[in-house]
Write a structure and sequence with these properties.
Elements (H helix, E strand, L loop, with lengths): L1 E2 L4 E3 L10 H17 L11 E3 L14 H13 L11 H14 L5
Length: about 110
């Protein structure tokens, strides 16, 4: 996630991999290129912080819930909520997401 307001790149990884720095640096490079392309000015990378996943954030242990984890994490971040869900909540979220798609309504 790139938070332009707070100059932070935060990488959410439900597997809690430790090699995240390279991915976050790529996000900053992308941001810098976008700023130059859109003529919004150069991005001073020294003013940015990179924050990795915390061990207190939800953990995914299986290989099939990644899409649901992504959608739910984005939803929580959009609502500025702490990531309080767990892997055991994924089935419930999957049903809410499917219901939202079928009824053309957002899930809550």
């Amino acid at each position: 996630m790139i938070d332009i307001e707070w100059n932070v790149v935060k990488y959410y990884d439900p597997y809690h991999n430790t090699d995240i720095l390279k991915n976050c640096e790529r996000c900053l490079e992308y941001l810098q290129c976008e700023g130059l392309e859109r003529h919004t000015g150069e991005v001073n990378l020294s003013q940015w912080n990179i924050v990795g996943s915390l061990l207190t954030e939800p953990t995914q242990r299986n290989s099939y819930d990644c899409g649901v984890f992504l959608i739910v994490t984005a939803h929580y971040l959009w609502r500025r909520q702490h990531l309080t869900f767990m892997e055991s909540d994924m089935e419930s979220f999957r049903l809410k997401i499917a219901n939202g798609i079928l009824n053309k309504t957002p899930f809550n």
